[in-house]
Amino acid sequence: TMKYVLLALAVVAGTLQLSHAFSREAAKEMLHDYRIKNQNFHIDSLETIVTELEEELENLGDAPDHDTIAALKARIRNLEGTGCDEDHVQCGGDVPECISPLFVCDGQDDCKNGRDEDDDVCSMDPVAVGTTYTGITSWSDCVLHDPHMTVITITAFERPPAYTARVYVRAVISFEVDEDSHLVQSYSAKGYWDFGHHRLNLIPQDSTQGGGHGVSCHFNLGNHNEADCKIGLVTSKHQCAAFHAKKV
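Below the sequence we write its predicted C-alpha cells.
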C-alpha cells in the first residue's frame, strides 16, 4: 500500500511541475502580446497627435519673414527705448551695450556681438543716388499750412575714408505750396547719414531757402524703406511738422 501511495505522490508532483511550466510560458506569451498591443496603441496615439499638430500649423499660415520680425523688434525698441543716451547707440543682443556712433561701421568690431559692423547696419541703400522718399506732411507749429506731400531725393553722397561713420549727402527737397494748383517748391539740401542712429539729417544749402527748416528722418522701423521724419527750425531745432516717409 505504501508503494502505491508514493507512486501517486510522484505523479501528482510531476503534473504540478508540468502545469507550472505551461503557465509560465503562457504568461510570457500573454505579456509579449500585451506589450506589442500597447506599443501599437501608443504609436497610433502619437500619429494622431502629430496629425493634429500639422493641421494646427497649416491653419497658422506661413512663418513670419525676416522683414516682419525686424519690424516687430523695432516697434518693441521704440516702446522700451535703447537704454543709451543720445550720444551713444545700442549694440543689441542679449546683453545691452552702448557705444559711440563714431565707432559704427568703422571697419572694427566695437560691439561684443559685432553688430556695429553688420552688413545691414552699414548698408548704403538709404542714401544711394536717386533714392526718393515721400510722405504727407502735417504741420503743428511755426507756420500755418495744410497737409501736403513732401519729396526727398538723394542726388549725391561722399563717404570720407578717414570718417566712415557718416556719409555726407546732397538732396533735393520738394513740397506742394498750393494743393489746388499743384504748385511745387524745391530747394537743394545738404546733410549726412548717421549709421549708428539710422538717421538722415538735412538742412538747406542756402539758408534763405526752405523757410529755415531742416529735415531729420529716423529709420527706426526695422528697414531702409520707411522712416519717421520731422521738420524743424535749423536754428533752434524746434519741431514744426512731421511725416512718415516711404521709399518709392
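The longest helix spans residues 2-60.
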